[in-house]
Design goal:
alpha/beta, six-stranded mixed beta sheet, four-stranded antiparallel beta sheet, 9 helices
Length: 247
C-alpha cells in the first residue's frame, strides 16, 4: 500500500476563536480503510470536509490523488471530487426526489450517460447495497433510517469513485442496522471501492472495517495505528475515550 491517495500535513482549522484541528498529519494508502474516531465536536467531520475540498484549512497541506487541493477553485476541484464519493451523516437525500432520482442525480450532473444507462447503473448500485428495484419509486420519507443510509451509499457509488468518505455511517441506527452498514462497508472495501476514510464514534464499526484507526482528541491525533495497537494504547485520554464508547 505504497501509493498515497491522501496526504495531510500540519492541518489547522478554526471556527471563530475555537481551534478544531491543531496540526494534524496523516496519509491514506490505496486499498486502505482509515477510521477516524473522536467524541462529538472533536473535528472528525471537519477533517472529512477538508479532504473533500468542501472547506479550506487555515494552515497545512492536503494532497488528494497527487494534487494539493487547499487553494483550488471550485472548478479545479471538480475532477477530484468526481473520483470520490461522500456519504453524509444524515444521508442528505433530496426529500422531493425518489430513490431512483436521488441515486441518478450524480450521473446526470457529472456524466453524459443516456437514460437507459443511468437506470442500469442505479439498479446495480442499489443491488450492491442490498436494495431491490421495489424501492426505486419511494421517497426518502418512506424509507427507514437504515435504508436511507444504504441509498446514500448507493448514490456515492454512482460515479464509480476511487475513494469513499463516510461521515458517521451508523449514527442514529439501531444495533441491527449498524451491523448491516458495517458489513456493507467491509464488502465494498473488498470489491467495489477499496479505499475509504470513515469518521465515527462507533467502536464496533471501527473494529469491523478499519485497517488503521486514529483517535482525535483536543484537535490532535492522540493515537494512530493498527486497530489492535490503538485499542492497547496506554494514552490516558485514548483509554478514557475507548472506555466510554465501549459502554
Amino acid at each position: 500500500m505504497a501509493d498515497h491517495i491522501v496526504e495531510v500535513r500540519g492541518l489547522w482549522k478554526s471556527f471563530d476563536t475555537v481551534e478544531v484541528l491543531r496540526g494534524v498529519s496523516f496519509t491514506l494508502s490505496k486499498g486502505e480503510t482509515l477510521v477516524i474516531m473522536g467524541g462529538s465536536g472533536s473535528g472528525k467531520t471537519v477533517m472529512l470536509r477538508l479532504v473533500a475540498g468542501l472547506i479550506g484549512p487555515d494552515a497545512g497541506t492536503i494532497r488528494v490523488f497527487g494534487r494539493n487541493i487547499e487553494h483550488l477553485s471550485e472548478e479545479e476541484l471538480l475532477p477530484i471530487r468526481r473520483r470520490l464519493g461522500y456519504v453524509f451523516q444524515a444521508a442528505a437525500l433530496f426529500d422531493s426526489l425518489s430513490v431512483r432520482e436521488n441515486v441518478a442525480y450524480p450521473l446526470r450532473e457529472h456524466t453524459r450517460l443516456d437514460d437507459r444507462e443511468i437506470e442500469v447503473r442505479v439498479v446495480r448500485n442499489l443491488r450492491l447495497v442490498g436494495l431491490g428495484p421495489e424501492v426505486l419509486p419511494l421517497l426518502p420519507a418512506e424509507l427507514s433510517g437504515g435504508m436511507k443510509k444504504r441509498v446514500g451509499i448507493a448514490r456515492a457509488l454512482s460515479v464509480e469513485p476511487e475513494m469513499l468518505l463516510f461521515d458517521e455511517p451508523t449514527a442514529g441506527l439501531d444495533p441491527t442496522n449498524s451491523k448491516l452498514v458495517a458489513e456493507l462497508i467491509e464488502e465494498l472495501h473488498g470489491g467495489v471501492c477499496d479505499t475509504a476514510i470513515v469518521v465515527t464514534h462507533d467502536l464496533e464499526l471501527a473494529k469491523t472495517v478499519a485497517d488503521r484507526v486514529a483517535v482525535l482528541i483536543d484537535g490532535r491525533f492522540a493515537a494512530l495505528g493498527p486497530v489492535a495497537a490503538v485499542l492497547a494504547s496506554d494514552h490516558p485520554a485514548v483509554q478514557a475515550f475507548l472506555a466510554g464508547e465501549a459502554r
